[in-house]
Amino acid sequence: MVLSAKETLAIQVSERTMSVLSILGSLFIISTFLRWHYFRKPINRLVFYASFGNMLTNVATLISTSALPSQSAPFYTLCEFQGILIQWFMMADTLWVFSMALNVMLVFFRGYDSRQLLRLEKWYLLFSYGGPGVIAIAYIIMNHHGPNTKKMIGPATIWCWVGKDVEWMRIAFFYAPIWVIIGATMCIYIATGREIFKKRAELRSFSKIPDQEFGTTLTNPFTTMDLGNIKVETEMKVETSYKTTSIDQDSLAAYPPSRGSFSSTKELSEPAVISPPSLPFDNIKTCHHEDGPRTGYKATAFSTCRAPGRGAKRSQSFPTEHNPNRRRTTAMEGNAAAWGYFKVAFLMFAALFIVWVPSTVNRLQQFIDKEHSLFGLNLASALVLPLQGFWNSMIYISTTWPECKRALADTLDSLSSRRTARRNQHAYAKQNLDASTANRVQGFETPIPLGAVRTRPESQRHLQSMSSAESVRAAAG
């Protein structure tokens, strides 16, 4: 299909405008992740890694139709560069979204902590960038050293990509793998969402039944993945002892205590023990500390690690003890966690469908009817495909909204402190300048008394007369 001048301009404006939005979103992700440590959650680390691929994709989409070869200006090297970037990094974004879904599944169903997720990142990098990279490198080799004289990379209507001579490879090595990954991602989020909303229903029933013990907890897997899933309980044992002197014995004999005071003294003299609740955890680490006999203080700390697996939800049981406020708070936390998960999952579903449905329909239509390409579908593809970085930034902001507000407050405080310091510096410099100017003016304007001139010492007048005589002789001689 040969685009008219107006259609080409519309596609160029669409691609470059959406690319600028995505670049701004990717720069926001990279800058906040590097600047503030509280953004560095495991799922945000994956979004951070994906942002570099998004920016390289936007480099290709910013080139737009300028790389399409023509008879007057065959920019084939630029065309090949654009096609390889699109094949490599546009596909990688979907693989990163799938890696985020894997992180959610491992945290929610397997109880993975931050260290375990950190060990998986090298495999995510290899999977997300290495897989599409193999296909892209194969295209380069076949483009220059293949047996077929036709080029693998060529015009693809709205930019350079896989050429029309091998159009079936667009479906086989790009759109088909992408939709398989999208299907797997959707299955993970649907399974996790069902489990979350099932627990939410249990929380709601738990808040209505006062005598029921509730055995599950509900957390948002997007906001709790930076925790180590460690619960700490402490047992403190306090022992007090008294030494009774002879004076105390005499005073006790003379003034026997009442029954109430004796009972309270007895309770103080006996060891007071705060026993921990039952620990239904598997791995228990004990740290014992005991002071000298003078203080009589003992402290034992139990650090209990939650066992992985779905059976771990039994270990999260806690007694309700007829506390309506506790039940109401727990139900509200469950609703907030469910809503937070739904919001992020909805954004990911929306991003996948908005980006890939119009472009897939467009390529299928071109594959079926090669002679009649629709400008509307091409324009829709030009609008949605460069938006991957923008959607990733929306997901990033939704998962770190409290951190974004904190970063904004830190930035405003920093700017305010700098402005105040600069104002104080200017005021201090102006004060010093005014003081020095006043001193100089005061020195120049100080009047010399007439009596001081008249009463000069004799030596000064003698020196003045000598200098005058010498000057007269020098002028005469």
UniProtKB/TrEMBL annotation:
<dbReference type="Pfam" id="PF05462">
    <property type="entry name" value="Dicty_CAR"/>
</dbReference>
<feature type="domain" description="G-protein coupled receptors family 2 profile 2">
    <location>
        <begin position="8"/>
        <end position="200"/>
    </location>
</feature>
<keyword id="KW-1133">Transmembrane helix</keyword>
<feature type="region of interest" description="Disordered">
    <location>
        <begin position="455"/>
        <end position="477"/>
    </location>
</feature>
<dbReference type="GO" id="GO:0007166">
    <property type="term" value="P:cell surface receptor signaling pathway"/>
</dbReference>
<protein>
    <submittedName>
        <fullName>G-protein coupled receptor</fullName>
    </submittedName>
</protein>
<keyword id="KW-0675">Receptor</keyword>
<dbReference type="GO" id="GO:0005886">
    <property type="term" value="C:plasma membrane"/>
</dbReference>
<feature type="transmembrane region" description="Helical">
    <location>
        <begin position="377"/>
        <end position="397"/>
    </location>
</feature>
<feature type="transmembrane region" description="Helical">
    <location>
        <begin position="20"/>
        <end position="39"/>
    </location>
</feature>
<feature type="region of interest" description="Disordered">
    <location>
        <begin position="308"/>
        <end position="329"/>
    </location>
</feature>
<feature type="transmembrane region" description="Helical">
    <location>
        <begin position="88"/>
        <end position="111"/>
    </location>
</feature>
<feature type="transmembrane region" description="Helical">
    <location>
        <begin position="123"/>
        <end position="142"/>
    </location>
</feature>
<dbReference type="InterPro" id="IPR017981">
    <property type="entry name" value="GPCR_2-like_7TM"/>
</dbReference>
<dbReference type="GO" id="GO:0004930">
    <property type="term" value="F:G protein-coupled receptor activity"/>
</dbReference>
<feature type="transmembrane region" description="Helical">
    <location>
        <begin position="46"/>
        <end position="68"/>
    </location>
</feature>
<keyword id="KW-0812">Transmembrane</keyword>
<keyword id="KW-0472">Membrane</keyword>
<feature type="transmembrane region" description="Helical">
    <location>
        <begin position="171"/>
        <end position="191"/>
    </location>
</feature>
<feature type="transmembrane region" description="Helical">
    <location>
        <begin position="336"/>
        <end position="357"/>
    </location>
</feature>
<dbReference type="GO" id="GO:0007189">
    <property type="term" value="P:adenylate cyclase-activating G protein-coupled receptor signaling pathway"/>
</dbReference>
<dbReference type="InterPro" id="IPR022343">
    <property type="entry name" value="GCR1-cAMP_receptor"/>
</dbReference>
